[in-house]
Design goal:
6-stranded parallel beta sheet, Rossmann fold, alpha/beta, single chain
Length: 151
């Protein structure tokens, strides 16, 4: 069966409150049960990424068919990715050597290759997550931003 794909992108520093967890959990469960989502892509770095990785892990207990997929650039397996378990590792071919730009282009590749992207982005113009949100918006990609919905 072909499942739709959801990616996660957010700020490295993130305050995970019970209210935010509930909103994200409910949204993801709707994607799974009503819209045929089964693959969840992660970049593996940052507090938002970790929080969503945990939520998807909890949902995986209820919906064992869903998969957590770690997205890396070719031939790179950074330290932060080794701390968690994933069902699959996907290498994205990126031609950029500088570490920060590789993260940005990895994020844009995740956005391009996913049916929807879940963001936690506040208005921080210098943030890589904010730049990724701008990219997804300009490309008219399906997205939700819990950063502005958190209050």
């Amino acid at each position: 069966m072909e499942y739709k794909i959801c990616a996660f992108i957010g700020h490295n520093k993130f305050t995970f409150t019970p209210a935010i967890k509930e909103k994200i959990t409910n949204y993801l469960e709707t994607l799974i049960t009503e819209e045929n989502y089964g693959i969840f892509r992660f970049g593996g770095l940052g507090e938002f990424d970790y929080a969503c990785w945990e939520i998807v892990g909890e949902l995986k207990e209820k919906y064992p068919f869903i998969k957590r997929k770690l997205c890396l650039w070719a031939d790179k397996y950074p330290w932060w990715a080794k701390a968690r378990e994933y069902d699959e590792i996907e290498e994205l071919p990126l031609d950029f050597d500088y570490w920060y730009s590789r993260l940005y282009y990895r994020n844009t590749a995740m956005i391009d290759l996913s049916d929807t992207t879940v963001f936690f982005v506040e208005n921080k113009n210098r943030s890589g997550a904010y730049k990724a949100l701008q990219y997804a918006t300009a490309k008219k990609k399906n997205l939700i931003n819990f950063g502005f919905l958190a209050e």
